[in-house]
């Protein structure tokens, strides 16, 4: 024993430390290294579990079932049926330039609206495409990155997405943005969710859709909207910025659009701030037509919205229409002519063949767009039981009026000035083709875009001016030839 003590008490070459001290130091260092490695492994495991806890692939692939809403009847405009980001203040907070836009839209401003398309996010990955109408009217694909556009709404935010697109928000982020989901921040409510206005830590205003978890309905709604518009980018679609998956909570974060929706401008309290001019209405509808043409013809699989209605058409301060609320959307592969599904949508907008058979394809959206166009032209609800019997259904009443050669009497009486006869007939022709009872006779949305765009303000005037100029040039040349011709 004494010999062991002697050996342990011998000094070593390590700073003259005794052997037992050196052994203790080495053991302590090894223990510290082991604890550090163990701590790093535990941390990595926790992050992996949190990252993979709710992957998109685990969300059940089930159909979206939401009740059929009704339009019309007593107090139809008090129903805030999911206006994704409709401001509480409505358009009352518009600046003076927006007020001018309300009553008289200028060509220069409408022509520059393309610059308002979404900027790219520093955190976005995967495919991100945008479709616009080409000069020939065909739909083509292009990158949605906008040079010189506004800054990304994700700048300064810490978390990145794990689904390959958008931004991953924590529950704490969204509680802070919405003041713990204060009732004062509520801007819309629907059957399966409440929409709150929020402000992110970087100052970006957003609309937070908190899905209600009724019998797993939040899972269904989340999957439908993510699959439908998670990757798509178009200036006339309300942009889905990101999401929150935490515990049983499912939330979707959209860009905030605070100039009301088309229903409010046509029928609701927003009318007190002014009346949308004919040009403004056609600009909104043309934008929605382009968005639908993109969803139907420019991406794969195509997206059938299934709930086109005026309350789902949001309007920004440049009076660009933005299509929102994809909770009822269905995806349709290229090899499928239709899918059979439970009938969903809003009464008055649903296509007759879909209502009768449950067979759904993009033609159903086209019918709904036709009803929407008639609603904008007439200022009437698609179904209004407060009117006399033959005027309850907007589509049937308008067909009757056109058949009796009273087309000019269907215009919204609040419009001043009234549209030209040519512009009105063009809009009615497009709408009636869209609501044709035979779905096969309805035009594609790209054709609708061409028909509407050809009647956009001042196009006809420019064509007439060119025609007159060409006629004058022809007369001038003819006169010069007569002068130069020698007498016989």
UniProtKB/TrEMBL annotation:
**Where do the record's region annotations for Disordered lie?**
65-143, 459-488
Give UniProt keywords alphabetically: ATP-binding, Kinase, Membrane, Nucleotide-binding, Phosphoprotein, Serine/threonine-protein kinase, Transferase, Transmembrane, Transmembrane helix
Q: Single GO cellular component annotation?
A: membrane
Q: How does it sit in the membrane?
A: Single-pass membrane protein
Note the Pfam families from the entry. Answer: Pkinase (PF00069)
Asked if Transmembrane is a keyword of the record, the answer is yes
Query: Where in or outside the cell?
Result: Membrane
What CDD domains does the record point to? STKc_IRAK
Keyword Cell inner membrane in record: no
E.C. number = 2.7.11.1
Amino acid composition bias (Polar residues), ranges on this chain: 128-143, 469-479
For this protein, the record's InterPro entries field holds: Kinase-like_dom_sf, Prot_kinase_dom, Protein_kinase_ATP_BS, RLK_Ser/Thr-Kinase, Ser/Thr_kinase_AS
Catalytic reaction annotation: L-threonyl-[protein] + ATP = O-phospho-L-threonyl-[protein] + ADP + H(+); L-seryl-[protein] + ATP = O-phospho-L-seryl-[protein] + ADP + H(+)
What domain of life does the native source organism fall in? Eukaryota
Molecular function terms in GO for this entry?
ATP binding; protein serine/threonine kinase activity
Q: Could you tell me where the Low complexity compositional bias lies?
A: 108-121
The residues covered by the Protein kinase domain are 181-459
| TM ranges | 20-44
Q: What protein name applies here? A: non-specific serine/threonine protein kinase
């Amino acid at each position: 024993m004494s010999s062991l003590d002697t050996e342990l008490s011998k000094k070593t070459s390590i700073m003259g430390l005794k052997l037992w001290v050196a052994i203790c130091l080495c053991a302590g260092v090894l223990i510290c290294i082991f604890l550090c490695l163990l701590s790093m492994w535990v941390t990595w495991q926790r992050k992996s579990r949190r990252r993979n806890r709710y992957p998109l692939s685990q969300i059940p692939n089930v159909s979206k079932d939401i009740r059929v809403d009704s339009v019309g009847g007593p107090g139809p405009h008090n129903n805030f049926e999911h206006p994704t980001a409709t401001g509480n203040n409505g358009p009352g907070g518009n600046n003076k330039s927006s007020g001018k836009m309300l009553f008289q839209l200028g060509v220069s401003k409408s022509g520059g609206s393309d610059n308002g398309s979404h900027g790219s996010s520093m955190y976005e990955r995967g495919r991100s495409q945008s479709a616009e109408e080409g000069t020939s009217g065909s739909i083509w694909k292009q990158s949605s990155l906008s040079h010189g556009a506004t800054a990304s709404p994700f700048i300064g935010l810490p978390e990145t997405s794990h689904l390959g697109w958008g931004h991953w928000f924590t529950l704490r982020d969204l509680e802070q943005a919405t003041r713990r989901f204060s009732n004062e921040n509520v801007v819309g409510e629907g059957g399966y969710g409440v929409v709150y206005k929020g402000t992110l830590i970087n100052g970006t205003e957003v609309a937070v859709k908190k899905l209600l978890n009724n019998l797993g309905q939040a899972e269904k709604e989340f999957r439908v909207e993510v699959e439908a518009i998670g990757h798509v980018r178009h200036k006339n679609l309300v942009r889905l910025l990101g999401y929150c998956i935490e515990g049983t909570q499912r939330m979707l974060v959209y860009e905030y659009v605070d100039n009301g929706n088309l229903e409010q401008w046509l029928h609701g309290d927003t009318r007190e701030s002014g009346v949308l001019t004919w040009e403004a209405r056609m600009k909104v509808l043309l934008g929605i037509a382009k968005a639908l043409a993109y969803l139907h013809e420019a991406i794969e699989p195509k997206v059938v919205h299934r709930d086109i209605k005026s309350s789902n058409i949001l309007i920004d301060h440049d009076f660009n229409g933005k299509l929102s609320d994809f909770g009822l959307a269905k995806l349709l592969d290229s090899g499928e002519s239709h899918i059979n599904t439970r009938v969903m949508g809003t009464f008055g907008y649903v296509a007759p063949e879909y209502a009768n058979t449950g067979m759904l394809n993009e033609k159903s959206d086209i019918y709904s767009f036709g009803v929407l166009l008639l609603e904008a032209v007439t200022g009437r609800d698609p179904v209004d039981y407060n009117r006399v019997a033959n005027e309850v259904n907007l589509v049937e009443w308008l067909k009757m009026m056109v058949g009796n050669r009273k087309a000019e009497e269907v215009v919204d009486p609040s419009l001043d000035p009234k549209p030209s006869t040519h512009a009105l007939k063009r809009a009615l022709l497009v709408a009636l083709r869209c609501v044709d009872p035979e779905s096969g006779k309805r035009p594609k949305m790209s054709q609708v875009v061409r028909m509407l765009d050809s009647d956009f303000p001042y196009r006809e005037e420019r064509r007439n001016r060119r025609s007159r100029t060409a006629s004058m040039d022809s007369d001038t040349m003819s006169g010069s030839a007569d002068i130069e011709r020698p007498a016989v």
